[in-house]
Every structure is written in structure tokens, then in C-alpha cells.
Write a structure and sequence with these properties.
Blueprint lengths: L1 E6 L7 H12 L5 E6 L29 H9 L3 E7 L7 H8 L5 E2 L7 E2 L5 E7 L9 H13 L3 E8 L10 H14 L3
Parallel strand pairs: 1-2, 1-3, 3-6, 6-7
Antiparallel strand pairs: 4-5
Helix pairs in contact: 1-5
Length: 188
């Protein structure tokens, strides 16, 4: 299985990167991992021009940045793991811009011609947050469900690692969460 992991944190060595690295270390050699560090790419926000809606068989975004090349890698993967630190109950701004650009992967929404270039793609969410899950990481999970549903994907699971303050303090709870995630994805 080819798994794309998307590190949505601007901190390359922060909590989210550390926990994602723990997950990736559990993936056995018979699977391939393709990691994308969003902060290393030029990704601008969607401009709402709708030009992409005229191109149903490819990511039809007219912007000249790195998003289409990432989408092409996503389209050939079997599963995508979206990771983000929790910023104001939401994705990081880097990840939010990337997620907004998923609009170009779907055409004909709400019509009989509804099509997604990620149709059937398996997706998982991995979030680190400084506080508890309850009344803190609920909105990001709802947004993720809706985005995957919009793209006609399938949610494997949502994995929230609470109480992350600094990478050196990430404890055994994170290890248990990523172990469960690896089992649920069938990659360990």
C-alpha cells in the first residue's frame, strides 16, 4: 500500500512532526510512505475563480504553485494521512490553505455529474493539541469528515493526541494512539 502523509504543521520538529514520525516508524517495509511537508511548498489559498470546475478529469486549478503536483501524488496513493496541530480549534493555516484547494478535485457537486478525483480514497486524521480532546478538538474532526465526504473518500479514523506541549514530553498515550492508527490502516 502507498501511504501519503501530509505534515500540516509549520514546525518541522514540533509535536505533530514527532507523532507523525512515530506513526511512520510503525509502517512495515511492504508499504511505501510518501511524506509531504506542507510548510516546504508554495501553496496559496483558493481564489474562488471556479476555472477548475470546467476540468473534471484532472486537478484543474489555474494557480501556478505546488498544489497540483501534490494532488497528483495523492491521486496515486492508496491512503492519505492528514496531520495538523490544533490551532484555534482548527487546522494550521498552512493546512487550511491546502484543504481549501481540494475544491479543484471535485466537479459537479450536487448534480448527477458529481465527480471527485479522490473518489474512494482512504483518509485518516492525526491531530496534536495542547489541551484535552473534549470541547477542543471536536470542530477539526467535523471539518475533516465533511472534506473527505465532499471528496467522496472514506474516513479510516480520526486520531487525536491530547496534552502535547513539547516534543520531548510526548508520552505513551501518543504511542498507543499511533499504534491503533497503524492497525486500523493495516500497515503495521
Amino acid at each position: 500500500m502507498k501511504i501519503m502523509t501530509i505534515l500540516g504543521s509549520p514546525k518541522r520538529n514540533g509535536n505533530t512532526a514527532t507523532v507523525l514520525g512515530q506513526f511512520e516508524s510503525l509502517i512495515t517495509d511492504d508499504h511505501e510512505v510518501d511524506r509531504v511537508d506542507i510548510a516546504s511548498y508554495n501553496i496559496t489559498g483558493c481564489v474562488g475563480c471556479y476555472a477548475c470546475q470546467q476540468v473534471p478529469d484532472e486537478p484543474g486549478c489555474v494557480q501556478q504553485d505546488d498544489v497540483v503536483s501534490i494532488f497528483e501524488r495523492m491521486m496515486v496513493s492508496d491512503a492519505v494521512v492528514y496531520t495538523s496541530g490544533l490551532y484555534c480549534w482548527d487546522f494550521t493555516s498552512q493546512m487550511k490553505a491546502f484543504l481549501d484547494r481540494h475544491f479543484c478535485l471535485v466537479t459537479g457537486y450536487g448534480t448527477p455529474d458529481y465527480k471527485s478525483l479522490l473518489d474512494g480514497k482512504r483518509a485518516a486524521l492525526l491531530v496534536t493539541c495542547g489541551g484535552p480532546v473534549e470541547d477542543n478538538a471536536d470542530l477539526i474532526q467535523t471539518m475533516f469528515d465533511r472534506m473527505v465526504n465532499y471528496c467522496k473518500g472514506s474516513v479510516i479514523g480520526k486520531y487525536i493526541v491530547p496534552n502535547c506541549t513539547v516534543p520531548d514530553a510526548i508520552g505513551s498515550e501518543a504511542a498507543k494512539i499511533v499504534e491503533r492508527m497503524a492497525v486500523d490502516m493495516g500497515v503495521s
